Amino acid sequence: MTRETGIAAAIHDEIERLILDGAWAPGQRIPTEAELTARYGCARMTVHKALSRLAGQGMIVRRRRAGSFVAAPPAEQAVLGIGDFAEEAKRSGKLYAHDVVLRREIVAAAGEFTAGEALLEVHCRHWLDGAPVAWEERLIRIAAVPGARQARFEQEAPGAWLLHHVPWSQAEHEISAASAEAGVARQLQLRRGAALLCLRRRTWHAGALVTDVRFSFPADRHMFKARFSPT
User: Fold this and answer.
1) 87, 100, 133, 222: which sits with the fewest CB atoms below 10 Å from its CB?
2) How many CB atoms within 10 Å of residue 173?
3) Using one digit for the tens of pLDDT, what is the confidence trace for 102-119?
4) pLDDT tens-digit series, residues 117-129
């Protein structure tokens, strides 16, 4: 890491901390590039890189001729984004694999989907570095995703396949805790009754429900993490 790169990271981290701690409120004007250049004794381009990164994260808003300001938080923020196990594993340097345990077409009962319509039910296990880290139980509405009938999900896990083939316009997450029942415990190589973190995710496109999925994570192998702007 060069000196300028290190200074840019320090500028970014200090401003981020001041915003996240609430020391700098939404709408507050932050020091100018010239002021930060003088404070850190660095090139102006170094400051510009740090501020550009903060703007890209949505932490600050840059206004031509007016300066930079702490961004106002959105009215609502998702707890988790729509992620891909394989991509997350790649970023963390871990070996990812998955296996499809169940894949069958069923008829929907009354509930989230329209009674009588065709659904694809898929159960899948996700692995990192040879250890099972998630158990997935998913329903896919075939009318919304006709191509799912031909998809075997052997190369791509169901979630990744959907991300790459089907647009979504709205998502909902529910996070809960549970004790592992016998079937889930067996799939995740846990003792029965072990603690689980559970994530239920539903996604819609153009007002129609596309998929309803429940992930079960061993509580000692997973955590949910999100960063928020101050309210």
Assistant:
1) 87
2) 15
3) 999 999 987 789 899 999
4) 999 999 999 999 9
The pTM of the full predicted model, rounded to 2 decimals, is: 0.64
Is CATH 1.10.20.10 the right assignment for the domain spanning 3-70? Answer: no
Q: The dihedral of CA 6, 80, 204, 155: what is its sign? A: positive
Cα–Cα separations (whole angstroms), residue 54 to 28, 68, 134: 15, 10, 33
Reference 12, options 30, 25, 38; nearest CA is: 30
The strand pairing partners of 119, in sequence order, are: 106, 141
**What span, in angstroms and rounded, lies between the C-alpha atoms of 122 and 157?**
10
Which string of DSSP letters, residue by residue, matches 150-176? T---SSS-HHHHHHHH---SEEEEEEE
- Using one digit for the tens of pLDDT, what is the confidence trace for 157-172? 999 898 888 877 778 8
Task: Render the burial of 72-99: b for 16+ CB within 10 Å, e for the rest.
Answer: eeeeeeeeeeeebbbeebeeeeeebebe
Q: Is the domain defined by 85-218 classed in CATH 3.40.350.10?
A: no
- Listed by start position, the domains of the chain span 3-70, 85-218
